[in-house]
Amino acid sequence: MEQAEKIDILKRLVEINSVNGNELAISKYLAGKLKEHGIDSKIDSFDDNRANLVAEIGSGSNNQVLAFEGHQDTVALGDESKWEHEPLKFTVDGDKAYGRGTADMKSGLAAQLIALIELTESNTPISGKIRFIATAGEEYGTPGANRLNADGIAKDVTAMVVGEPTGGQVIFAHSGSLNYQVKSFGKAVHSSTPEQGVNAINGIVQYVNAELHLFDDVEQDEYLGPVKHSVTLIKGGDQVNIIPDYAEIYGNIRPTLKFPNEQVIDRIKSTIAKINQSGDFRLEFSLIHNFHPVETQPDDEFVKLVDAAAENNFTDREVKLSIINGATDASVFIQSNPNMPTVILGPDAWDKAHQVDEFTTLTSYFETIATYEEIAKKFFN
């Protein structure tokens, strides 16, 4: 495939608005492009204009399955007046390609699509299967990955490459992400007689103070480090002269394999139970999102294969093995296949994702395509 066509594929993907929704339009485009090159695919439509897409190539003469996985949605455009380049117009300036999703992660998705097409058209022998998985809603709630995981899409996967933007760096581990809410219930009275009420804010304050040191004694993960945690939203009270009967906070925690999600939840619940015994207010815990940590040993044979392929093709930079504290769809798929070697590898650039004037570089985009193809060839040889 000529470079101009590769750029055009990325352009078309970027110019489809898929802000945490409307993935069906992306899936239809991907399916059409695959069909042009003789590759069948299946679109899993759900809700209002949401969809996953799955395609496979290979003879299937053995049971090895290499998955290339990515998401079709993007985060919101934000304040468009702050963009120098229109967010839904693909704009190339030198080596930089601007637009919402250019980095996260339509360049990675396009690279996976093109790798499948070029492997097929070059008649590269694939003794097992390469499975291309394009999901809906990774940016909020992972509804697409949840649906596919429930259908067993990853149960037989031998190894997975997630195409998030890593700037060519090979990510062998990432933390989980757990979002939660704590509600505090009290009794409202006039502020002139506070002793007759129960101030719900006091319950929240006790939890927030406890949360500061909630994981101080937790042993650090060998690769992911400490459990990172924050209270990120707070609300309480309606009027200055009324003792509030309700308050709430939201928090985010980044679990590790050393201290996984279940232990995090147990610790929060235990802390809330102790606080509830100390006053007349009542705290309640609610789990909102629960994404698990992903970790493959850096000396795993698949990690070494991917690292070698990246080093061979990302010739304009030093390639290193690394970790991130963000979560990916792999947090979902690892639940049904916990021993699945998983790496995250994609083009530029993680620090440009979700930003005004988001961009990738065409150099890293082409290098990613070549890297994916080398991974596939080496994996099945």
Automatic annotation (TrEMBL):
The UniProt record lists the keyword Transmembrane: no
Record Pfam families: M20_dimer, Peptidase_M20
Alphabetized UniProt keyword annotations: Amino-acid biosynthesis, Cobalt, Diaminopimelate biosynthesis, Hydrolase, Lysine biosynthesis, Metal-binding, Zinc
GO molecular function term, any single one: succinyl-diaminopimelate desuccinylase activity
Species for this entry: Lentilactobacillus curieae
Upper taxonomic lineage: Bacteria, Bacillati, Bacillota, Bacilli, Lactobacillales
Associated pathway: Amino-acid biosynthesis; L-lysine biosynthesis via DAP pathway; LL-2,6-diaminopimelate from (S)-tetrahydrodipicolinate (succinylase route): step 3/3
PROSITE patterns cross-referenced by the UniProt entry: ARGE_DAPE_CPG2_1, ARGE_DAPE_CPG2_2
Start and end residues of each Peptidase M20 dimerisation domain: 173-276
InterPro entries registered for this protein in UniProt: ArgE/DapE, ArgE/DapE_CS, Bact_exopeptidase_dim_dom, Peptidase_M20, Peptidase_M20_dimer, Peptidase_M20A
Protein name in the entry: Probable succinyl-diaminopimelate desuccinylase
Reaction(s) catalysed (UniProt annotation): N-succinyl-(2S,6S)-2,6-diaminopimelate + H2O = (2S,6S)-2,6-diaminopimelate + succinate
Keyword Amino-acid biosynthesis: yes
Protein's GO biological process: diaminopimelate biosynthetic process; lysine biosynthetic process via diaminopimelate
Family that this chain belongs to: Belongs to the peptidase M20A family.
Enzyme nomenclature, EC number: 3.5.1.18
Cofactor: Co(2+); Zn(2+)
Class of this enzyme: hydrolase
